Amino acid sequence: MNDDEFKTASQMIINKTNYLIDLMHRHRLKRPLILLNWNTLTGDTFITNGEYFRGGIIIEQLLKLSSKVEGIGYWLNYDLHVSHCKNERDYMNSIELFHQYNGKRPVYFTALLFNKLTSNILYSDDTCIVTGTDSNFQILLYDAKHFNPYLALDNQMNMRATEMIHLNINALEEGMYKIKHFTLDKENGALFNLWRKHHTIHGMDKDSIDYVNRMSFPKLEVYDIDITDTLALNIKMITNGIHLIEVKRYPSS
């Protein structure tokens, strides 16, 4: 697959949605669109699909689709999803919210963080969107790198693909602010690696299931900070990671 073909494949859902919207417009059809079975670029086996963390790619697709469709659907869980698939390849064409034993997949948390954004957009570019108001806003930073999923099997890839982002937010009103910082990436909230580590030839017992489900959550940091003008943030971004920072000014006493 050459570069142009790869780029087209990575945006297949967007391209198909745009084609359908254009087709409906030409035939003067006005109907709400709801996306049901869909997926991003992913691996073609359960292993490559699990190792290929795609949180940032899914956020990218959600942001592009949100203004085009009325709703976006997911399969509820792994067992229900598999029971309606003809084969492994068919399984890769859509996404479920829960894996086995009610473990939350990263797409569950991706949707959760996405829904924390408000409808009032203050700023937007290819890797960032800011919503809210001057005194209560949400910053969503994401990395969306489309690459061959088999490269995700390289254990050193996370280290090579980590970058530090230094973010300064200027001209804030002076006062005390509450900061909440959610991190969803392959080190924080990725179910698959923990699941594999605790899965034996006889499956997982209750202790293992409870532990994996308890530990497979995004990282959360919460703190207060006194700001006179500028908020400085240092963010460790891993390939296809997501960071949501909520900034809320306390009322003046």
From TrEMBL:
InterPro entries for this protein: GH (IPR017853)
Domain of life per record: Bacteria
Protein name, as recorded: AraC family transcriptional regulator
Cited SUPFAM superfamilies: (Trans)glycosidases, Glycosyl hydrolase domain
